[in-house]
Automatic annotation (TrEMBL):
The keyword Repeat does not apply. Residues 73-85 have a biased composition (Basic and acidic residues). Residues 59-95 are annotated as: Disordered. Residues 88-189 form the Cyclin-D1-binding protein 1-like C-terminal domain. It comes from the Eukaryota. Coiled coil: none annotated. This is Uncharacterized protein. Belongs to the CCNDBP1 family. Keywords: Cell cycle, Cytoplasm, Nucleus. Gene3D superfamilies: I/LWEQ domain. InterPro entries: GCIP-like, GCIP-like_N, GCIP_C. Pfam families: GCIP_C (PF20936), GCIP_N (PF13324). It comes from Nyssa sinensis.
């Protein structure tokens, strides 16, 4: 299931002043391959931020629908007409169980930490702009192009993760996306080390992301086990 259409207005917002500073530096630099890569990463980060915003809009199901009286429901209908399109959009994400909501929150944490990693990559690219005329400029561009490709692959997995959160949640697909992100982060870290552009802040960001991924995968494993046990019990009863 696709996520909701992203709004253009959200693209103008930065999630931190520090991130905005590095983006501004990239935009003030003459157009080069490295700058183009930096801008592409910036747009990727904006897209991830939109996914994160949509994740945070997911809601927990009402514990007792009967609490709303018929009069309250009627008044609500008068205020908010339910055409088919609005009703469909309103229903999305409104009926998460407590277990699903926990998974949603952990997935949001993964995307948030991924954004921090991207921010640190942009910081590294900003530093490399000063070295564009050096002898290893070509090698730097090649590494950055590989970094961009890896980051774009992470973006695909982030989209997949977000789409799978809508009920019924697709646990196997979320596990696959989480494992893929973990693998891609390992590859990204190797490229960053080759560029000699890593920093303590970057390592901390990667560490935070790996921790969030472990928490999500642990919860997904518990969810899978919880689903399997009743099915096995049903098989025993049927036999």
């Amino acid at each position: 299931m696709d996520l909701a259409v992203k709004t253009k207005n959200s693209q103008s917002h930065s999630w931190s002043a520090q991130f905005g500073t590095h983006v501004l530096q990239l935009k003030k630099t003459p157009a080069t391959n490295i700058t183009a890569i930096g801008r592409a990463m910036t747009q990727l980060a904006v897209s991830m931020k939109d996914v994160l915003r949509e994740m945070k809009e997911l809601k927990l199901a009402s514990s007792d629908p009967a609490d709303e009286t018929s009069e309250e429901a009627s008044a609500k209908d008068e205020i908010e007409p339910h055409d088919s399109e609005n009703s469909f959009a309103g229903d999305l994400g409104d009926d998460l169980s407590p277990e699903e909501m926990k998974i949603s929150q952990l997935a949001s944490g993964v995307v948030s930490e991924t954004l921090l990693v991207i921010k640190e990559l942009i910081r590294s690219i900003t530093g490399l702009l000063k070295q564009e005329n050096s002898d290893n400029s070509s090698n730097s561009v090649d590494s950055l192009e590989r970094l961009l490709k890896l980051c774009q692959e992470i973006g695909v997995q982030v989209d997949e993760l977000g789409a799978c959160l809508y009920p019924p949640q697709e646990v196997p697909a979320m596990k696959a996306a989480s494992e893929k992100i973990s693998s891609l982060i390992d590859e990204i870290q190797l490229e960053v080390e080759n560029l000699k552009g890593s920093s303590e802040a970057y390592f901390q960001a990667c560490s935070g992301l790996r921790n969030s991924l472990r928490q999500l995968e642990s919860e997904l494993d518990r969810s899978s086990t919880a689903d399997i046990v009743p099915k096995m019990q049903n098989l025993v009863v049927d036999n």
